[in-house]
Amino acid sequence: MLVIDPQSATPPYEQIRTQVLAEVRSGELAAGSRMPTVRKLAEDLGLAVNTVAKAYRELERDGVIETRGRNGTFVSASGDPTEQQAQLAASAYAERIAQLGVDAGEALSLVRRALGIHR
Q1: Who's near 102: CB < 8 A, 6+ residues apart?
Q2: Torsions phi, psi for 77 (to 5 deg)
Q3: What is the distance between the alpha carbons of residues 90 and 38, in angstroms, rounded to a whole number?
Q4: What are the HTH gntR-type domain coordinates in residue numbering (predicted)?
Q5: What is the model's pTM?
Q6: Are 21 and 56 in contact (CB under 8 A)?
Q7: Model confidence over 47-94: pLDDT tens digits?
């Protein structure tokens, strides 16, 4: 359930966007789940329709949701776009490391250092 904090410095559309993304990542909103209409969500949250529409546009741009014309808006079947992008980056890194002839242990050490994980 989405909740808007009117006292937050974060704009309402961004609160919607981040909460929907968090629910998709956690599995609370499963792939294929139908989203409320823009008008219905705006009414439920006490927001302007344009505010919710902006959040939906950004979520759709990022591949989190998809609009299927008159059928409505749904959580994208492709899953968490952040995870997809991370997987693509990891695959590109692994491919490049192999090209350079760096062994897996050293490659993991390089990643740990880049992420600031010291062990």
Answers
A1: 110
A2: -70, -10
A3: 36
A4: 10-78
A5: 0.68
A6: no
A7: 999 999 999 999 999 889 999 888 899 998 765 667 767 767 887 898
